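lol ok so funny story. i was supposed to be doing the assay writeup but got distracted and ended up predicting the structure for this chain instead. priorities right. anyway since i did it might as well share w the group, maybe its usefull for someone
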Amino acid sequence: MADFGNEGLADLYRRAGSVSSAYVDVTQDAQNPRRTSSLRQRTLREALTEAGAPEIDIGTIIELIEEPPGVGGRMGRLMVVREGVVEFNEVLSGEPLGELLVSYGPVPALIPLLIHRPRDLNYVVAEVGRDGGEVTLYRLSRTHPLSKVRVKGDTEFLTKVGSEDDFLANGRYQHRTEEVWKRNEGQIAAAIDEVVRDSKAELLMLTGDVRARQLLVDQLSPTSREVLQVLPTNTRPGGAAQEELEGDLNRHLAAILAQEEHDALERLGAGQGSGLSELDFAAVVRALQQHQVDVLMLAPDRMPGETLIALDREPWLAGSSADALGAGELGSVPAADALIRAAILTDARVMVVSPGELPAETSIAALLRWSTLPAPAEAPTPAEAELSGLPSRGDAVTFPRRRASSGGLSTGRDRPER
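and the output, tada:
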């Protein structure tokens, strides 16, 4: 399966041809799984048929929902199929958005994906001990790790001796043991720093032996420490259960995404006076057409029945045929799907928010890459201000009349008659 960060989604949106989309609650029924499966298949087939999906797509989607999800708990599965070919198939953990959401048309319906996983990001889990550790790189859009690095440290003099009767139990041995620990953690810290730096990870979860964690943190780079979160338990063999790590990890990932949404809403309010945010529906559409949108926020529940025209090339969407600017029309699609597609294709961030987070009667909002207000006139420099006071060429100039003095020249009328 392809990587479905923004790049993968953009590729999906560019493909031609009508597509079947289905989001299904695939939470396992432990009491009567066979009956649940049969009912789910029948309901899904009826819904897709009513939406106009071809039989080749329907059959493929029904096969997909019977695949083992590989995870437990509540979940939904989002599938996109075009002419029987699977283009997207992902289990989305968390409370399902509903029993069933289906569509058939020129644009995939990916709103469930953006609600479950607002954006993609990389994170690192480091499990450490005094003898080494493992550094694993994950991506939010992948169920399996991207990479894993195992660091095997020095095991000589690894254990301190507490008995005073043992001839090795002396200060020199204890110091040597501490140095071995520190050297081992230095090797792990170097491996962590490299993975965090190369992957641009936004979260580093550290767990394992207490003393090993202490020695390691002191040797991490500032970049790694900036994204560090420590789980105060040991999840290595013999340590705490992995469920605790997963729970803590999910909370920190959710906190990152929640903070980003909070910051975007703050920017939305602050940008009103500077022309860096927009709340008007038509104005947001125009901004998307001009690649001006940095972050698109939308509340799909506030735009039921609204449609826009999806286009086969820039500007990617239009309110009417007159606004298509020569691009081919793929068809009229739900406004939310057209807006999200245009945002992804112009490398904008998309946030699906609840209606209460936007101002009253507002269904979409945008943070802009540049201001819509005209640039203010620059104040003249002192030299320019001085020059502006001088007459320009062609202006009439009036000089003051000078009075004649006793020592000056006399006029004709002052001369005595001869």
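The first strand starts at residue 19 and ends at 25. The chain has three domains: 6-116, 122-260, 272-368.
back to the writeup now i swear
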